[in-house]
Amino acid sequence: MNRLVCVLLLACLAGPAAAQQAAYPIKADDGTIVANHRVPAAAGDEVEGLPGAVILGNPQGDVTLAEFYDLNCPYCRKASADMAALLKEDAKLRLVLVPFPVLGIPSILAGRVELAVARLGTPEQFWQFHRRIFSGRGVVDGERALAVARDLGFANEKLVAVANDNAVTETMKAHVRLGNTLGLQATPAYVVAGVAIVGHPGRKALQAIVASVRRCRHVVC
């Protein structure tokens, strides 16, 4: 079978979005306060335990930043470029990428391919896929994701077979369930040092957050 199967993620319909909060005075690059709230101390381990999470950067890094994102989120495109810059300049940063396909059927189909790439390839190949997807414009659907993966050397038939596996469906559901549990009501969203940050604060703001965690183990000292 050479087509992707769409299974709607009903978990993403779990109730209304919570009101925006600001547990810490985290400022975005434009000076506005970014919505954020505390999450359980074990949240970081739960995120890393997700079956489709991919660890990049320094595996023994001193600060771990997890990002939940959707391939069709325009703010996630900007976040991807900022993350690439952060990883290049910060040799001690550990990044956990969590595919979070919640923005409709194209995202779900593309997400299936993305998770197939995660299962079949290395973290470096996953990162290449991630950056190539976000270097383009327009809607990212299953066919577009397959084309990018093929360009990276993945065999189409194998990709489709893995993407359509029920294990990928369960992986996607697990990601959405945890995102809902952690109150991640927008993409991108980040989990770092026991705090969920909802929305992309910008490169400089993320640098400041990482620096604060290093200095005092909190997102704001």
Structural commentary:
- By secondary structure, the chain is an alpha+beta fold.
- It has one domain (22-216): Glutaredoxin.
- The chain has eight helices and six strands; from the N terminus they run E-H-E-E-H-E-H-H-H-H-H-E-E-H.
- It has helices spanning 43-48, 74-89, 105-120, 123-135, 142-151, 156-163, 166-181, 203-216, and strands at 36-38, 54-57, 63-69, 93-99, 189-192, 195-198.
- A six-stranded mixed beta sheet has the order 1-6-5-3-4-2, with helices on both faces.
- Helix 2 links the parallel strand 3 and strand 4 (93-99).
- The longest helix is centred in the middle third of the chain and has 16 residues, at 74-89.
- The N and C termini lie far apart (54 Å).
- The model is unreliable at 1-19 (pLDDT under 50).
List keywords for this structure.
221 residues, alpha+beta, Glutaredoxin, 8 helices, 13% strand, globular, disordered N terminus
Mean pLDDT: 90
CATH superfamily: Glutaredoxin
| Percent range for β-strand residues | 5-15%
Number of helices: 8
Largest sheet: 6 strands, mixed
Order of helices and strands: EHEEHEHHHHHEEH
Assembly of the depicted chains: single chain
| Low confidence ranges | 1-19
Fraction of residues in H or I helices:
40-55%
- In CATH, the architecture is 3-Layer(aba) Sandwich
CATH fold group: Glutaredoxin
DSSP strand count: 6
Shape: globular
Kindly give the count of domains: 1
CATH class value: Alpha Beta
Strand order of the largest sheet: 1-6-5-3-4-2
Return the structural class.
alpha+beta
Backbone CA Rg: 17 Å
Q: Give the termini distance in whole angstroms.
A: 54 Å
